[in-house]
Amino acid sequence: MSQAHTASNLASQLPPIGLIAGQGRMPILEVQGIHAAGRQVACIGLAGQYEPDLPDLCDHFAPVGLIRIGQWCKKLRQFGADEAVMIGRVRKSRMYDPLGIFRQLPDFRAAKIWYRVLRHDRRSQTLLSAVANEMQTCGVKLIDSTQYITDHLASEGIMTKRGLTPAQEADIKFAWPILMNMNNLEIGQAIAVKDREVIAVEAMEGTDAMIKRAGKLCRSGNFILLKGPNPGKDMRFDVPTIGLQTIKTLESAGGSCLVVATNQVILADKPRVIEAANKANITVVGI
Fold it and tell me: Which residue among 112, 173, 201, 227 is least crowded, i.e. fewest CB within 10 A of its CB?
């Protein structure tokens, strides 16, 4: 019996990998990566968030309430999963709808997190760490969300046909330390810069909205977008992501360069993102 066949048999005997799916294409890429590793996927789709074709791609699937964490654990354990990946967008701004969290009908575990943690600190890292800790108590461990999609992580150096100009190199050298300091304060994960001046900073509105604002402020165009977490980023959740829409928005706003953190930013999916950047004459570089 070959080593490959033996490895395949062992993988098939392992429990499925859980997937907590939000918006966008990333959960689909995650399913593909988990299957490529020979594991089954037990997916719970957050209500009103997941893509309609996701259920048919998974070995097990159930829709769940957005903030019903007890239900997440119950379904994943029913499917036999004791490890899970959390990936896909969920807009944090929904928390600022009046009584927004209670409109989603939280269960006891979610209400407990709100009372003990979130009423004092609503930062994303605080929220997601509290969710991970609560899930651990019910037998489901959240794991690195990039473990099965390493092919879609930003690689080092220039990833596109177009290289960097001296002006862009100077802007990157100026702006990257600023972005890292900003991330240490958990303000956002992206900034727009031109001629050693910060044009726009990302906060809760998201990267695309920030890019549009930068385009309005910098009518001459040719600004650069830098995106990445701080070096100590917890890769279990909220990993910065660049997609086709990001490239389209950057092109429309007049941006000419995208700088991302190597192995800490997801390109969803990478071949299509790089192809789109080449067509838009946008340089993509990982540092």
Answer: 173
Domain at 153-286: CATH code: 3.40.140.80
Say if residues 17 and 40 touch (Cβ distance below 8 Å): yes
- pLDDT (tens digit per residue) in 156-205: 999 999 999 999 999 999 999 999 998 888 788 999 999 999 999 998 88
Sheet holding 141-142, edge to edge: 60-64, 41-46, 17-21, 83-87, 141-142
CATH number of the 3-142 domain: 3.40.50.20
The CA distance from 185 to 202, in Å, is 12
> How do the domains of the chain map onto residue ranges?
3-142, 153-286
Query: What's the pTM?
Result: 0.83
Instruction: Say which residues have a Cβ less than 8 Å from residue 229's Cβ, sequence separation at least 6.
Output: 183, 189, 239, 240, 261, 264, 265
Residue the block writes with tokens 């290289």: 163
